[in-house]
Design a protein that fits this description.
Keywords: Membrane, Transmembrane, Transmembrane helix. The chain has about 70 residues and is an all-alpha fold. The protein has three helices and no strands. α1 runs antiparallel to α2.
Length: about 70
């Protein structure tokens, strides 16, 4: 969540300096803050998300070990 708050802050700085792509960073920052609060309010979803990403990470590891052996 802290990185998304920083993204919103950086996008405000980019707007102040006249960079045209500041709105994309602002959108990502706000979307990340909303998603972070959703994960805090729904710990079951947060746990399932962590399990899903860990499971996805084990697939290439298993393929690597099969190829290595």
């Amino acid at each position: 969540m802290f990185r998304y708050v920083a993204a919103v802050s950086y996008s405000k700085d980019l707007k102040k300096y006249g960079i045209k792509s500041w709105s994309t960073l602002m959108f990502i920052g706000v979307l990340g803050i909303i998603f972070s609060f959703f994960l805090l309010w729904n710990p079951l979803f947060a746990g399932m998300t962590a399990v899903l990403w860990i499971g996805i990470a084990f697939i290439p590891l298993g393929v690597f070990n099969i190829i290595l052996s």
